[in-house]
């Protein structure tokens, strides 16, 4: 149910400057990123608008220029409801959805729960497990406060991602992680029926479990395709031209 407590996600609608050639594309960025740094810098927004697509660009809670703009729970189910409200309010019919990293996890759940709102699903850098669920928030806080070393490898690597974007607000990101910990990713619990494209760099350590997602889709009878990007890792797969071209081809299929 979509109630009055729906999260107010920062949304920008970027219209194509040519004739509309297909559904609008909802872009869901990764953790410790933003609509701007994940999609605009990598030239995805221009790529879509140049090819006749309107773009719905959101900032997840804890991210973007106003990371603390939302009160209450930031659990994935709340984010999913907020995304649904955006699509319904714009009244543009089903959209194509592209997510990256954490955004791909949210896109999987969004498509699985709202099949009537999603035409195609594209997941970049996805994994079948939940990295953020194991994040040690107290260790990260001590590291920021006093420089005390983080002894959990996963937490240390996520903190490197956080530090890579100077505008990130660590406390806001920790609040989102707390929300995610209440609902860890269990992809087998609800599987999208929407045609799905899975994309990752073949050097992406975070996407080694992507074949498990494909197996779930296959067993559920969902049409799916996979693209491995040669020589790309989790940080730079998103800038790949091959990724963009394959996505556009898949969305037009």
Task: Please write out the topology.
Elements: E1 10-14, E2 25-28, H1 35-40, H2 44-50, E3 55-59, H3 76-90, E4 95-100, H4 102-113, E5 118-124, H5 137-146, H6 153-164, H7 170-181, E6 196-201, H8 210-219, E7 224-229, H9 241-252
Parallel strand pairs: 2-3, 2-4, 4-5, 5-6, 6-7
Antiparallel strand pairs: 1-3
CATH topology: Rossmann fold
Which CATH first-tier class would you pick?
Answer: Alpha Beta
Helix content: 25-40%
CATH homologous group name: Alpha/Beta hydrolase fold, catalytic domain
Strand content: 15-25%
Mean of residue pLDDT?
Answer: 94
In terms of per-residue confidence, which ranges show pLDDT below 50 for 5 or more consecutive residues?
A: none
Elements, N to C (H/E): EEHHEHEHEHHHEHEH
Please give the count of helices: 9
Shape: globular
Count of discrete structural domains: 1
- Estimated structural class: alpha/beta
What is the terminal separation in angstroms? 32 Å
What's the alpha carbon Rg, rounded to whole Å? 17 Å
For the biggest sheet, the summary is: 7 strands, mixed
Compute the number of strand runs: 7
So, CATH architecture?
Answer: 3-Layer(aba) Sandwich
Domain AB hydrolase-1: 25-234
GO biological process, one term: acylglycerol catabolic process
GO molecular function: monoacylglycerol lipase activity
Protein name: Alpha/beta hydrolase
């Amino acid at each position: 149910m979509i109630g009055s407590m729906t999260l107010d996600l920062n949304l920008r609608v970027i219209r194509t400057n040519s004739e509309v050639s297909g559904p609008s594309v909802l872009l869901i960025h990764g953790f410790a990123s933003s609509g701007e740094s994940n999609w605009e810098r990598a030239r995805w927004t221009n790529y879509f608008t140049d090819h006749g697509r309107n773009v719905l660009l959101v900032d997840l809670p804890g991210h973007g220029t106003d990371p603390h703009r939302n009160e209450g729970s930031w659990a994935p189910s709340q984010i999913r409801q907020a995304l649904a409200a955006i699509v319904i309010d714009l009244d543009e019919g089903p959209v194509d959805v592209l997510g990256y990293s954490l955004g791909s996890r949210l896109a999987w759940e969004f498509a699985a729960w709202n099949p009537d709102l999603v035409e195609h699903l594209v997941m970049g850098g996805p994994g079948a497990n939940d990295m953020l669920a194991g994040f040690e928030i107290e260790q990260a806080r001590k590291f920021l406060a006093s420089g005390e070393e983080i002894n959990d490898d996963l937490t240390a690597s996520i903190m490197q991602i956080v530090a890579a974007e100077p505008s990130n607000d660590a406390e806001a990101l920790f609040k989102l992680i707390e929300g995610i910990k209440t609902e860890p990713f269990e992809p087998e619990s609800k599987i999208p029926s929407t045609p799905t494209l899975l994309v990752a760099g073949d050097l992406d350590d975070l996407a080694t479990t992507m074949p498990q997602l494909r197996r779930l889709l296959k067993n559920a009878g969902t049409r799916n395709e996979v693209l491995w990007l040669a020589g790309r890792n989790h940080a730079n797969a998103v800038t790949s031209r091959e990724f963009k071209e394959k996505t556009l081809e898949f969305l037009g299929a």
